[in-house]
Write a structure and sequence with these properties.
- It is an enzyme of class 1 (oxidoreductase).
- This is Coniferyl-alcohol dehydrogenase.
- GO terms for molecular function: coniferyl-alcohol dehydrogenase activity.
- It contains ten helices and seven strands.
- The chain has one domain: NAD(P)-binding Rossmann-like Domain (Rossmann fold, 3-Layer(aba) Sandwich).
- Helix 1 links the parallel strand 1 and strand 2.
- The radius of gyration is 17 Å and the shape is globular.
- The mean pLDDT is 94.
- It is an alpha/beta fold.
- The chain has a seven-stranded parallel sheet, sandwiched between helices.
- Helix content is 42%, strand content 16%.
Length: 260
Amino acid sequence: MHEGKTYVVTGAASGIGAETVKTLKAQGAHVIGVDRNPAGGVDQFFQADLSDPQSIDALVEALPSGLNGLANIAGVPPTAPAAVVLKVNLYGLQRLTLRLLPKLADGASIANLASLAGFGWPNAVEQCKAALALSLEDDIDAFVAEHALEGAEGGRSYFLSKEALVVWTMQNRWSWRDRGINMNCVSPGPVDTPILGDFIETLGARAEEDMKVMDRPGTPQDVAPVVSFALSDHAKWFRGTNLMVDGGMSSHILSGIHGL
């Protein structure tokens, strides 16, 4: 499905990122991995800190041109400081994507790993707009203080980072249509990765209740094929879409909201 294609995968060292690398390579792709930590199984590896604009710019400078896609999978959990959560999960992702556009081939695809945590964006539109008015070079600490995000109950900074990412992806549904470049989100539910414990720690009883409803947590093997699909030519008419891969949890929530 990806023969002769070259993709950049961030967060390639572990979890969903590492499994996406494996999946893409099995389908014929040349994969460039990006992470803070060394990543195995990739064809090329670049170390970068997605909370640091200079590190991102150096990465973009080093990457080749003619790339067929970007999988923005790197992220930090809600136990990290709120400013770091926003920088990595939202602002660093945006900066990398926008700076890398000139090096993407026409017809390339961008897949952003959002989350079921972004499901509530319709109830947080104004806060999403406020977040999206900023960039990685702005004073994110001041934004965190203004919105009381540090230590906020339920990991609010993480939820906001994913809500704003879903909104940003929708806003850019047609931004690069003239070049045939599409961008979509993939939103997993709870996934059994090294940071699942961080979510349970942060969300407490809420996470425990969700886990009781689900038959099991997801695995990276559940999610990586969806990311692969989003990068493929088969998904070219998906534009600004949020693909939910959550074991039915979003449908469960919607059914409850609407009395179904």
